[in-house]
Design goal:
Blueprint lengths: L3 E2 L3 E4 L6 H9 L1 H4 L8 H18 L3 E6 L5 E10 L10 E8 L8 H17 L4 E5 L4 H9 L3 E7 L5 E7 L3
Antiparallel strand pairs: 1-2, 2-3, 3-4, 4-5, 6-8, 7-8
Length: 172
């Protein structure tokens, strides 16, 4: 399993003991406000397991992120495989996503992590189209998507009813 390092970060595939820290991150009100489909521990556990399955079945998934100088988990960022019921232009595609702990936002860490992930993904899996979804109103993530080469596709509703904006990143 890959371990990526950047100037400030270490990224590694998740392990079972990461669940509680990740649950705490997505449960914080500052973070949860942008996670339209997050519905509590059972839902998060299913998502956590889906990510582990992505690693097993496809050879890629979200990485657990920590600062290199610390052991504490500060988020997860990566490219994973999922089906969301959003249509053939989005489902069954590699999907990018980034979530950082509320006190780590605004430091350029998500960009640093995702640039490393996208470079690794391209090297391991070739030039492929990657999609992402962002809740309307999450302007920092929308700006980051643009910096990472994602362009708007369309707006959509999740099967649960939450609104999202869909983006794609074409192979370079």
């Amino acid at each position: 399993m890959p371990v990526l390092t950047t100037a400030r970060l270490e990224l590694r595939p998740p392990v079972a003991s990461d669940f509680a820290a990740n649950m705490a991150i997505v449960s914080h009100e500052e973070t949860a406000r942008y996670l339209a489909a997050h519905k509590g521990p059972a839902d998060h556990f299913a998502r956590f397991c889906r990510n582990a399955g992505s690693w097993m079945l496809y050879g890629y998934g979200a990485f657990t992120v920590r600062l290199r100088s610390e052991k504490e988990i500060i988020g997860n960022c990566g490219v994973f495989h999922t089906l969301r019921g959003l249509g053939p232009d989005f489902d069954d595609q590699p999907e990018a996503g980034w979530i950082l702990r509320h006190d780590q936002v605004g430091r350029g860490l998500a960009r640093e992590a995702m640039e490393a992930v996208l470079e690794w993904f391209g090297g391991e899996h070739g030039g492929r189209r990657i999609v992402c979804m962002i809740e309307p109103g999450n302007e920092p993530s929308i700006r980051l998507a643009g910096k990472l080469g994602f362009t708007p596709m369309r707006e959509a509703k999740l099967p649960e009813g939450g609104a999202v904006r869909l983006f794609e990143r074409l192979p370079r």
